[in-house]
Amino acid sequence: MSADKGRKKIPRHVAIIMDGNGRWAAQRKLHRLEGHHKGSETVEEVVECCRDLGVEELTLYAFSQENWARPSDEIEGLMALLKSFVFQKREKLIKNGIRLLTIGQTDRLPEGVLKELTRSIYETRQCSTMTLTLALSYSSRSEIIDAVNQVLRNAMANEEFSKMVNEDEFDRLLFTEGRTPPDLLIRTSGEHRISNFLLWQMAYTELYFTETLWPDFSRDDFMKAINEYQRRERRFGKTTEQIRATA
Ligand code: IPE
Ligand code: IPE
Ligand code: MG
Predict the structure, then answer these.
(1) Which end of the chain is more exposed for a tag (fewer CB within 10 A), N or C?
(2) Model pTM?
């Protein structure tokens, strides 16, 4: 009998597509940035919730590469919000043992944002209670293509054109560098799509969609997603009988 039989399984890694900030603001006749601001409060609450539950990794999709195509005032506002959020939450991250990481083409971020991020990443490097990864200027397709090009460069540099890579080696070339893949993906705001997020990593992730807009997403909503996850049977291609036999 496994150690966690009888105890409800907590996902080790939760990923979230935080969507619906703009619609939340529009419903209240507010500027879209007000929605992003309220959404940043949800981030803080969900981070606390994950830490309390014993989730080891939380990955938040905060800004996609495609989001660079939004109106410039929204991008400027989002970047200013990100910068102050990272600055203001640094001490709290350290106090709570939360390590900060990023994935994505962060060199495209404004210098001031990058500086705050780099500092928090450095100052939280020893934190081991939970890892919080922010996906910023992130595109899963670019990540995969960059890894393919890295394979080609390595092969050419070593003059080993016949060298093949296996899944584990390829996995280590991604931004996520071979870390544990998400067990559960939550997307808020009623959209049922992946929007170029962790395409490789989510091959066997459980997907959960809720109508709730991200600024309204509460601890209760998060627990609903966890409860649903706990009712799922992850089979990884096997049969129910095989899964039950090893549980
Ligand atoms: C998610 O909310 C935040 C980002 C993509 C930065 P949106 O800004 O996409 O909100 P909607 O989808 O327009 O409501
Ligand atoms: C996905 O949301 C990206 C983030 C949450 C950061 P979008 O609002 O950009 O996604 P689409 O365009 O509706 O697919
Ligand atoms: Mg959206």
Answers:
(1) N
(2) 0.96
CATH number of this structure's domain 3-139+181-246: 3.40.1180.10
**pLDDT tens readout for residues 106-134:** 999 999 999 999 999 999 999 999 999 99
| Distance in Å, CA 23 to ligand 1 centroid | 8
Structure token pair of residue 208: 């959960």
Which tokens belong to 146?
């960059």
Q: What ranges do the domains of the chain cover?
A: 3-139+181-246
Residues paired with 13 in a beta bridge = 57
Instruction: Write out residues with Cβ below 6 Å of ligand 1.
Output: 18-23, 63, 67, 78, 189
> Is the CB of residue 50 less than 8 Å from the CB of residue 130?
yes
Output the pLDDT for position 156. 84
CA of 182 to the centre of ligand 1 (A): 22
Exposed, middle or buried, 207 (CB in 10 Å: 0-12/13-18/19+)? middle
Find out whether 131 and 58 touch, Cβ atoms under 8 Å.
yes
Q: Residue 26 is which amino acid?
A: A
Point out the ligand 1 atom lying closest to the alpha carbon of residue 36: 3
Cα 223–Cα 235–Cα 220 angle in degrees, nearest 5:
5
Question: Cβ(195)–Cβ(218) under 8 Å?
Answer: no
Tell me the ligand closest to 197's alpha carbon: 2
Helix axis angle for 72-95 and 32-53, nearest 10°, is 20
Selection from 102, 104, 133 nearest residue 118 by Cα: 102
